[in-house]
Amino acid sequence: MILANKSAIVTGSTSGIGLGIARALAAEGANIMLNGFGDAAAIEKIRQEIAGIGPGKAAYHPADMSKPAEIADLVAKTAATFGSVDVLVNNAGIQHVAPIESFPIERWDAIVAINLSSSFHTIRAALPLMKKAGWGRIINVASTHGLVASAEKAAYVAAKHGVIGLTKVAAIECANTGVTCNAICPGWVLTPLVQKQIEARAAEKGTSVEQEEKALLGEKQPQLKFTTPEQLAALAVFLCSAAASNMQGSQLVSDGGWTAL
Ligand code: NAD
Fold it and tell me: In angstroms, how far is CA 74 from the centroid of its own chain?
């Protein structure tokens, strides 16, 4: 186990990719601070499941990742609960699909806050602890949309390109501190975030969800398979390993060929 006696924050880990990463880091022995929205009983069930995976403990912090004061408290409470913050996975994210002219200003602000600014706030708070410890891993879940664009996703694409930029700056500032900062860039993953987009497309076109799943993959992902949370979690574990200790500011892409086109 490569993360025994270490502690990890995974933002947005009550669902999808974040939950997959939390499970994998727990299996490597880490204490896990879960975060994200959801029904209290369902979150407690997830906490218990994560606590049962490895020798580490699991706790939950309800920080709204659009609120800087709550984010600072998430990092402080993790350090107080587990004694350290060794791994920080910035994963919480939302989506809204609309042309720029009719993109709701409130959705733009929320996406930039949750998908981009939250990572600045977590890194700002966690970095002094990691530098003091002489070891840390910052993993930003960006997207293919951090590298290329799609129509009607102005806020998401802008925020994810920003995450890649933030990753590079943190990487340079962390050089020779024992702390690394890298990004993971998934293509389509079949989580609630994407399921909502597929259902909206099917409703709009009068087609089935299955037809729209195939269409979505066909438009972007030559391999025609969704990337899975487990595949992305394995990349996160790799970034925590000694083999990745000289990786700084990189973008690990798992997108079935999307950005190779
Ligand atoms: P998801 O909807 O399954 O999970 C999102 C998580 O973020 C949930 O736990 C949710 O509660 C949490 N969250 C949302 N708003 C929050 C807030 N204000 N404060 C705290 N938590 C909040 O989505 P997912 O697909 O697992 O997405 C996870 C990350 O992966 C996101 O950053 C997303 O942009 C990125 N991503 C997803 C895909 C994909 O195809 N699903 C592709 C590339 C990148």
Answer: 16
Residue whose CA is closest, atom 23 of ligand 1? 193
Which atom of ligand 1 is found nearest the CA of 144?
43
Q: Which residues contact 91 (CB under 8 A, 6 or more apart)?
A: 10, 11, 12, 13, 17, 18, 21, 141
Q: Which of 60, 108, 156, 226 is catalytic?
A: 156
Which of ligand 1's atoms lies nearest the C-alpha of 189? 40
Residue identified by tokens 């990890």 is: 8
CA nearest 141: which of 6, 22, 3, 1? 22
pTM: 0.98
Q: Is residue 17 within 6 Å of ligand 1 at its C-beta?
A: yes
Digit-coded pLDDT (tens) for 120-149: 999 999 999 999 999 999 999 999 999 999
How far apart (Å, rounded) are the C-alpha atoms in residues 159 and 165? 10
Enumerate domains of the chain plus CATH numbers. 7-187+228-254 (3.40.50.720), 188-226 (no CATH)
State which of 10, 11, 13, 15 you would mutate to test the pocket of ligand 1, scoring each by most atoms of that ligand within 8 A of its C-beta: 15
60 is catalytic: no
Distance (angstroms) between ligand 1 centre and the Cα of 55 equals 27
pLDDT digits (tens, 9 = 90+) for 156-202: 999 999 999 999 999 999 999 999 999 999 999 999 999 999 999 99
Sheet of 136-141: strand order equals 58-61, 31-35, 7-10, 87-90, 136-141, 179-186, 251-254
